[in-house]
Structures are given as C-alpha cells and as structure tokens.
Design brief:
Blueprint: H1 3-16, E1 20-24, E2 28-34, E3 41-47, H2 56-80, E4 84-87, E5 92-95, E6 111-112, E7 117-123, E8 126-131, E9 136-141, E10 147-149, E11 154-159
Antiparallel strand pairs: 1-2, 2-3, 4-11, 5-7, 5-10, 6-9, 7-8, 9-11
C-alpha cells in the first residue's frame, strides 16, 4: 500500500464520519481512528511482515524523487495530453503477448482498432483479454511485461489522429 493510497483512505474516512476503520492486507495492518467531535485523525500502521514495501526508508526516499522529477513530469504531461490512455479495468498481472513464443499484441507504432486485443491481464488464474476502446496508433507502452497492475492504471498511450 502506497503512502498516497493511505492518505486517500484517511481523507475518505474523515469525510465519511466513521469513527474507526481497520484494513488488513497480506503485509500491512492499518487502523484509522477519528474522533467525531474534534475531527482529528489518528493513524496506526503495523507491519505484519517485513517486505520492501513496508521499509520506512523507501517511503522517505519517494517524496524526494517526486520533487526532483516534478519539472520533467509536467513537461511529459503537456506532451502526452493530446494522447488517449488505455487503462487497466482490473487488478492483475500484465502480459503483452498470449504466450512466450508469440509476438506482442500491440507494439509502439502499431495501429489499433476498437475491439482489438492490446494485452492480457491475469487475475486469479484467469487470463482476461483487454480490448482497445479507441482507434489510433500506439505511442507508448507504460507497463513492463509480466508486471502487476492496479485498477485504472494507465497501460498504453494512443494517438487518436
């Protein structure tokens, strides 16, 4: 769970009026308590197991990198604003090809049509073909092959012209 996700969860809990929310994933146990009258929020994070994601040093380094990369990200955002993003409709593992010995579904420079398969996302041992909802040319592949992806995570940039 990223720091941004935790912050969004805290904001959601404080707006909802709930006094306590507990969330437990495989490696993190998170409890958020709010006092209804004062509006203060207390967050308690207890790592269940040590993984690279729960090491405090990793979280301390991330904001510094984000600040340093902010001008570059702004330039890329202006450049990519003319493109349409194909996003992941589910959580799972991203695959660019149907099997290791087959070619990629979509590469940079390929033209895609509405309904053409651009990748596969494996979720719970089910392989879901992800189809393009737009026509255009693939400009950039934003995810590495065999990488985990989140819901609504950008996968491809497509130039619709």
């Amino acid at each position: 769970m990223t720091v941004k996700e935790i912050q969004d969860l805290i904001k959601f809990v404080s707006k909802s009026g709930a006094t306590e929310v507990s969330l437990e994933t495989g490696d993190i146990k998170l409890t958020i308590k709010t006092e209804a009258k004062k509006g203060t929020t207390v967050m308690q994070q207890i790592p269940v197991t040590l993984t690279e994601q729960t090491i405090p040093v990793a979280h301390a380094v991330a904001p510094v990198a984000a600040v340093a990369a902010a001008p570059v990200a702004a330039a890329e955002e202006d450049e990519s604003s003319k493109y349409i993003t194909i996003k992941s409709p589910i959580i799972g593992t991203f695959y660019r090809k149907p099997s290791p010995d087959k070619p990629d579904f979509a590469k940079v420079g390929d033209d895609v049509e509405v309904g053409s398969v651009v990748c596969i996302i494996e979720a719970m041992k089910l392989f879901n073909e992800i189809e393009s909802e737009i026509s255009g040319k693939i400009v950039k592949v934003l995810v590495d092959d065999m990488s985990p992806v989140e819901y609504d995570q950008p996968l491809f940039l497509v130039d619709p012209s």
